[in-house]
């Protein structure tokens, strides 16, 4: 019974690790240009931040 539970936990951890890896890969591809594309509100916010420098 304990072995079965541990195997299930291992499977869940493996799945979680894979999902986190995929999410990380997607975030690495983000850029301000992609975040602000066709979004005037966010573009204005980032422009405002850039002018404060």
User: In sequence order, what are the helices and strands, one letter per element?
Assistant: HHH
Task: Tell how many strands the DSSP assignment holds.
Answer: 0
Helix tally equals 3
| Spans of at least 5 consecutive residues with low confidence | none
Q: How much strand content do the residues show?
A: under 5%
- Percent in helix: over 70%
Indicate the multimeric state. single chain
Count of all domains: 1
Biggest β-sheet description: none
Rg to the nearest angstrom?
Answer: 20 Å
| First-residue to last-residue Cα separation | 61 Å
- Which whole number gives the mean pLDDT? 89
| Overall geometric form | rod-shaped
Structural class: mainly alpha
Description:
It is rod-shaped, with a radius of gyration of 20 Å. The chain has one domain (2-52). It has three helices and no strands. The protein has helices at 2-28, 32-36, 40-52.
